[in-house]
Write a structure and sequence with these properties.
4 helices; 10-stranded parallel sheet; 3 domains; Udp-n-acetylmuramoylalanyl-d-glutamate--2,6- Diaminopimelate Ligase, Chain: A, domain 1; 347 residues; alpha/beta; 17% helix; 12-stranded mixed sheet; 40 strands; UDP N-Acetylglucosamine Acyltransferase, domain 1
């Protein structure tokens, strides 16, 4: 699909400087620009590339004034970075625009769906499922019985949404993610075996939540596992039964949160963090990557380490951690000197 500079300027409410009929059909970095591509310049560190780029059209700030001749057509806007981001979103919507129900799908008679619904091949929609408007469910997806899905939701290929799950509006669920599988609940028997505890709760995902690929969110034993509005989950995250993640909290890849832990709002949790069960993590908490959390955390704490402690204390202590072999050698030398002095005095 091709767009002219004039069309793009219309979308961005910008001004064309150069050829309004210049056409582009792909996006590029400014330093890698090719004929037919659209790029942008917002960081002054990259100003020199504007004079050599082969990109057909470049989005720039209104304040930009070229110091020498350029070949690229300019579109001047208030904020080049935000405008390019807006175009990326527009491009993504155009690229991903799909409607209709493809072949080899199963939809239960009792299921309902809204306008502009897309269902990819080899997908399954269970009984009493309710799906809102502008929902896209890509091929090889499973949606279990009694699931409710709001408006403007995208579920990418291969995702599984188990029964009773509730998904709000404007959510994105990426490939391979499993929502609503059984929590890890077992009771020990006298003979050393384990008896499975039925997991009869569900998962509730509120509005504006993004969930990365191959993430798992377990259903509650009773009640709900809850992902509050605005939460962003990376790939390969494990959320256990009855966990609650507060609104606008961001969690990076390979983090695991054990059962019944409550995480507050506006938190930032780095990659490979492990959080034990039945804890309360406060609001606005920052947990650095590869930390292990085994205690309740108050609001606004910044933590690192395993077990975690204050980030500033960790940074100071790390200086000594890495010098520990040298410190031990010095202590041993001091001990020898003390012993030698003592023996000399005794003599």
């Amino acid at each position: 699909m091709k767009f002219t500079a004039e069309q793009i300027a219309g979308i961005l409410e910008g001004e064309v400087v150069g050829n309004p009929n210049a056409e582009v059909f792909q996006l590029s970095k400014i330093e890698e620009g090719k004929d037919g591509s659209l790029t942008f310049l917002s960081n002054p560190k990259y100003n020199n590339y504007i004079y050599t780029t082969e990109a057909t059209i470049t989005i720039v700030n209104k304040t930009f004034v070229p110091e020498s001749e350029i070949k690229t057509t300019l579109i001047k806007v208030e904020d080049a970075y935000l405008s390019f981001s807006k175009l990326l979103e527009f491009y993504d919507q155009v690229k991903g625009h799909k409607n209709g129900i493809e072949q080899h799908t199963v939809i239960a008679e009792s299921a309902t769906y809204g306008e502009n619904f897309y269902l990819g091949s080899f997908s399954y929609i269970g009984t009493n499922v309710k799906i809102g408007d502008n929902v896209k469910i890509y091929p090889n997806c499973f949606v279990g019985d009694n699931v409710k899905i709001g408006d403007n939701v995208t579920i990418f290929a291969g995702a599984k949404v188990y029964s009773e799950t509730i998904i709000g509006n404007n959510c994105t669920i990426h490939s391979g993610t499993i929502i609503g599988s059984d929590g890890f609940g077992y009771a020990p028997n006298a003979d050393g075996t384990f008896k499975k505890i039925p997991q009869i709760g569900n998962v509730v995902i509120e509005d504006n939540v993004d969930i990365g690929s191959c993430t798992t969110i377990d259903r509650a034993t009773m009640g709900s596992t809850i992902i509050r509005k605005g939460v962003k989950l990376d790939n390969q995250i494990q959320i256990a039964h009855n966990v609650e993640i507060g609104e606008n909290t961001v969690i990076a890849a390979q983090t695991g949160i054990a059962g019944s832990t409550k995480v507050g709002k506006n938190g930032m949790i780095g990659g490979q963090v492990g959080i034990a069960g039945h804890l309360t993590i406060g609001n606005h908490v920052r947990i650095q990557a590869q930390s292990g959390v085994g205690r309740n955390i108050k609001d606004n704490e910044v933590l690192q380490g395993s077990p975690t402690f204050g980030y500033n204390d960790f940074s100071k202590s790390y200086v000594h951690f890495k010098n520990l072999p040298k410190i031990i050698t010095e202590i041993e030398e001091l001990k020898k000197q003390i012993l030698n002095n003592k023996n000399g005095n005794n003599g």
